[in-house]
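Hey L., structure's done. Input below.
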Amino acid sequence: MSKIGYARVSSREQNLDRQLEALDYVSKVFSDKISGQTTERPQLKAMLEYIREGDIVVVTELDRLGRNNKDLTTIMNEIQQKGATLEVLNLPSMNGIDDENLRRLINNLVIELYKYQAEAERKKIKERQQQGIKIAKNKGKFKGGKRKFQENDPRLNLAFDLYLKGHTDKEVEEQTGINRRTFRRYRERYKVYREQKVRKTIV
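Output:
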């Protein structure tokens, strides 16, 4: 039996130090710097392939694994299918229960309750945000979200330069850390286009 850690932050700008410190006692840690809105995370997949029967997957908080019930259920099912269990550090510990099956059952119930509570809370927050935006719009005060990059931002300009030199959006993301979809929006906003090569037709 091994304890396998998984850590995640949403972007390359954020650091994993707090989570890694909390997981310093486990045998191995897998970590991603990518949004939890997707399950297409390289290190998450590597972790799910690595774990074996009897292992314990440890995360500091449940939302490090996923941000919605559907994804969390899918990931937890994969962990269980491997014969492993999940331990969430900010949830009550079941270490005092000697019966392994009972401990696993109660642990799963606690996690399920937490999942639905967290999902309900996220929905409430979104509803409050939408209500606040609607009120602000009616008062003429809503100006939209603050832009992440200004036109003169060095990192954004580096991304534009790489793109104009022929690099793909994926390569630009790898070198600058700017998400592909975000970068496409900024290209449209600032009208950054590559010159289209005209093919000559031989008559």
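The longest helix spans residues 100-138. The chain has a mean pLDDT of 80.

-- N.
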